[in-house]
User: Fold these one by one.
Assistant:
Number 1:
Amino acid sequence: MMYPAIEPYAHGRLDAGHGHQVYWELCGNPAGRPVVFLHGGPGAGCSPAHRRLFDPERYKILLFDQRGCGRSTPSACIDHNTTWDLVADIERLRSEVLGAEQMVVFGGSWGSTLALAYAEAHPDRVRALIVRGIFLLRRAELLWFYQEGASWLFPDLWEKYQAPIPEAERGDMMAAYRLRLTGEDPQTQLEAAHAWTQWESNTITLLPDPAHQQAHTEDAAALAFARIENHYFVHAGFMDEGQLLRDAHRLADIPGVIVQGRYDVCTPARSAWALHKAWPRADFHLVPDAGHAFDEPGILARLLAATDHYARD
Ligand code: STX
């Protein structure tokens, strides 16, 4: 069970430069242990449910919408929007908003990617690392989900993902989507954004779940999600191939927890397994009956146990 719904006790916007205003909010106990929540996508934004992963009596909880998505502006903007821009934003939020020397870092899916990138860049700032649905943004992971692999499990939904792309361009789906998501015609952008977003939201739970399928159906949210994700993926996350595993030795002294669903189709368990081997200090939980979503029962139980543990320890 998640903690009760709460409202922020403070919120504001970080002026990140080049026109980017990054929305942030603080929840819970101002004197509690600092934690930052990193959302998925990239481009998905935070939701009120994310506040409920942390005991509000014991945590000072920072949530923020990454550049170009959620309540951050300009919406769907992919200029000056890279992994390293986000890592720099996290550092400023730690110091200027949380006012903390160290913090617990929590991230799922793309949030796990960003959490690892941040922790490898600033290991001394990380009190503990809690990551779920491990995504290392390697080429093989992108091809699995956006080109061929997941298509073998969801041929019906794959057909809908392919629909906006003419057959002649289907040899590189990410490039074909990029053309449409960044093109001149707003209607084409929107059609592509919805098809891209639906593919992801319809394949993330173990069993079909209407609550997830309705997510991100608003035009603005779908545009931000699809444009930002696609931008990061055609640029390989602005990282070297395999960089997060290569540099995992920097995590050696950081305690933490890895939570992964066995039947996660979006970010398959192979990456979590590789991280487990490269970061032996972390507890590793392979949940036998779950997919990708953070609120599937087996995943949620492990995440809440982890945040509970690092509130005390
Ligand atoms: N994207 C992985 C990711 O971060 C490749 C992600 N996948 N689905 C989501 O996020 C939502 C549940 C936020 C739609």
Number 2:
Amino acid sequence: MGLFNFFSNDVAIDLGTANTLIWMKGKGIVLDEPSIVAFDSTTKHIIAIGHEAKAMTGKTHRGIKIIRPLRDGAIADFEITEGMLRAFIRKVSMSWQPARRVVVCVPSGITEVEKRAVRDSCEHAGAKEVHLIAEPMASAIGIGLNVHDPVGNLIVDIGGGTTEIAVIALSGIVSDESIRTAGDEMTESIVQFFRSSNNLRIGDRTAEMLKCQVGSAMPLEEEILIEVKGQDLVHGIPKMIQVSSVDIRKALTKPINEIVQAVLRLLERTPPELAADIFDRGIMLTGGGALLKGLDERLRSETSLPVHVAEDPLLAVVKGTGIVLDNLSEYSNVVIKSSRF
Ligand code: ADP
Ligand code: MG
């Protein structure tokens, strides 16, 4: 046993609405896959997870269902979520020794019952010790903020299903806003835009690609023209049109406004001493949505505050969760207390 203890299998997990990342002690990030599951619709037997399940999207028959079990920041199906989490943990665990200690980051809006389900899933995957941490807290730690300081920090984490905005000070979340408008809504708005303005049906993957490549929240120095392929809604045949980044920006107006409004609402609710800190330190953007072109600039112009995009916004949460795993005693006050007993 002594020898095997060398291979510590402790893991930190970012259980995101769009992506799940796993960090392993001594190894760094060992898994980065979409939070997607393909399963048999009658038996609920899991057929594929992650990249493999994503590749099956849109190509399945009636017997197979594909879902993103955390899509809206809540757990849509306990059994499937548990199966996905267990499968991901198993994938990175050395077969002879399951993960012993697990720190999992969960969307801050999930309920007690859902937290319990996440804990149970990790235990069923062999974990002896499970700690949960809220997403904005993990983001803040991941980008190197000292969350224990008596100083306010404003974190805006824009994921797939949810945008989580929080003021953090003294190892706690002072106030927060969580809205179900984030990257998915942006993608959906692009799909809708082509349907209503161009009679063109495009797939989610195309829309997401357009969002990432030419999507923006502020005018670009040089606007971009791009060719988009889809299906003509009137004639049903494949069609290609040219659009500009100006159109894509117009399509993104509503979700972006909603995110801006949520940030402004939280600022209004922030106690003055902390507001003063935020005035000096500014807003930190994390999550994949932080990569949208011009979003930082847009928030700067709306709030008149400094706005910084984290260095690797998609990795902030898993890094923070990893730091908590490595320094559990120092961070014991930021993990979510279990209500199990
Ligand atoms: P979650 O934590 O909810 O799993 P992530 O932080 O992994 O979410 O972010 C995923 C979201 O970020 C997706 O909606 C994805 O489309 C979006 N995203 C990724 N890269 C970009 C980009 N360059 N521009 C805009 N959005 C992006
Ligand atoms: Mg996230």
Number 3:
Amino acid sequence: MTSGTKPLVGIIMGSTSDWESMEHAAKTLEQLGVPHETRVVSAHRTPDLLFEYASSAERRGIEVVIAGAGGAAHLPGMTASKTVLPVLGVPVESKTLKGLDSLLSIAQMPGGIPVGTLAIGKAGAINAALLAAAILGNKYPNIREALRKFRESQTVKVLSTPDPAKSAIAAVLAPGTKTKRKKRA
Ligand code: RP5
């Protein structure tokens, strides 16, 4: 089965201010060719929309939800309470507590309604997308292969720069690099 063009992943976030972090989930899914949609859905400002979104997601063909929120971050947990789809939570970095509040709010779900919790901020958003792709890869071989290629190119990139000191020197000495010489008095 190929993944087609209908959104399989729903990326939701509590506020437009979360986009700075959550765009990394969208970019990663784009890179992997995973169809997705993005939406602001606030658990406390638009609770009816949240219920509608979460309860209709499965019917609309969404297979994984990525939910990002900051502070008293109840969006991922509330979403998970209204759907049996896998919900991956991204703790957005808050100004006051640097995202520790978001992390604990999302990770500490009482037993019975799980939210797969990722790291705070950009890393979590990227990994939520990669994990969503891994879940979808069980059903869609094209997504699994895209994920495999992503991992392989990441490995090649790391192995091609084994010594950061040498590559820094190479960058300075690279042809075309202007180096300032001190004039002698
Ligand atoms: C949460 O409150 C959002 O997820 C966001 O991280 C945080 C702050 O929202 P704004 O006040 O920036 O809209 O609901």
